[in-house]
Amino acid sequence: MEKIQLTYINGSVFCFNSKDYFKIRETHRVIGSLIGPGIGFTGNKDYKSLPAVFTDIESQFLLEKGIVEVVEKPSLASIPPDSVKNQFQTQFEQQGNEMKSLEDERSMNLFKANIEHIFEGQSKSKTRKQKKSDEEFKPKTIDELIADHEQRLSNTPLKNRLVHIPTANQFEIGYAVSKQVQAKDQFKYRVFRDLWERGHTITCGETFSGDFLCYPGDPLHYHASHIVTILQKDEIFNENQMIVHGRTANTVKKICLFAQEDHDGSIKYHTLNWVTPDDHEMK
């Protein structure tokens, strides 16, 4: 199996290629975090775009499974030479013009499909304005409206258009150095690996004050089933902490799961079920 190449930059591991990311996510159930700008419209915080960044735990897991190789590219840390800048600018303008042609064609077809409604609305608007003014004017014909729309499209500068910018570097960037990534907390890594091997999809659990969230499948299609909290060996969990985690899990309708290292080095799991006084009396 050909390994997917991930890029190591300033202590983090990134994936810039969309096909590689979907393969890691869909085939190997490792999610990472999309950190690119929002998709669809400005300010959309729910759906991010590439690149994706992987935690040290996810990176070590992917490396150990032989799914990826992590490389560092020293040339990315320096300002690109003028030759690369010129290549990028040329490609950017070429892509922009190609997309402009397609966008203009789509816009014109849509405009023509609705031209009768546009003409009717323009005529009514002109009539209302004429009543308020002594000036006499003649509404534009359909051909004139189409010509005006074509002129507006041709006058729209490239900077005001949506242009696809590739996230993966398409130019020569020099040599790459292989990197090894180790999780800082090896017990936490072991829990991640164990839960993954049990069939779960795991993401960060900070949203619900945990270490991990466990899903039965891709988080785009499923809600999390468990909030996982890591306990170190011989760590004592006091009542207040149990109440906080129990209430949180109960509120969001998830199972509270504690993972702790046993004396023999194995992973020991405990679940916490939240029971109200009324439920206890009924039982």
From TrEMBL:
User: Which EC number applies?
Assistant: 4.6.1.16
Gene3D superfamilies attached here? 3.40.1350.10
Family affiliation: Belongs to the tRNA-intron endonuclease family.
Enumerate the spans annotated as tRNA intron endonuclease catalytic domain: 188-269
Q: Which InterPro entries match?
A: tRNA_endonuc-like_dom_sf (IPR011856), tRNA_intron_Endo_cat-like_sf (IPR036167), tRNA_intron_Endonuc_cat-like (IPR006677), TSEN34 (IPR016690), TSEN34_N (IPR059049)
Question: What are the catalytic residues?
Answer: Y215, H223, K254
The function of this protein is: Constitutes one of the two catalytic subunit of the tRNA-splicing endonuclease complex, a complex responsible for identification and cleavage of the splice sites in pre-tRNA. It cleaves pre-tRNA at the 5'- and 3'-splice sites to release the intron. The products are an intron and two tRNA half-molecules bearing 2',3'-cyclic phosphate and 5'-OH termini. There are no conserved sequences at the splice sites, but the intron is invariably located at the same site in the gene, placing the splice sites an invariant distance from the constant structural features of the tRNA body.
Q: Name one GO cellular component term.
A: tRNA-intron endonuclease complex
- List the coiled-coil residues: none
One GO process term, biological-process aspect = tRNA-type intron splice site recognition and cleavage
Q: In this protein, which residues make up the domain named TSEN34 N-terminal?
A: 4-72
Residue ranges spanning the membrane: these are none
Q: Which UniProt keywords apply?
A: Lyase, tRNA processing
What's the protein name? tRNA-splicing endonuclease subunit Sen34
One Pfam family, please name it.
tRNA_int_endo
One GO MF annotation is: nucleic acid binding
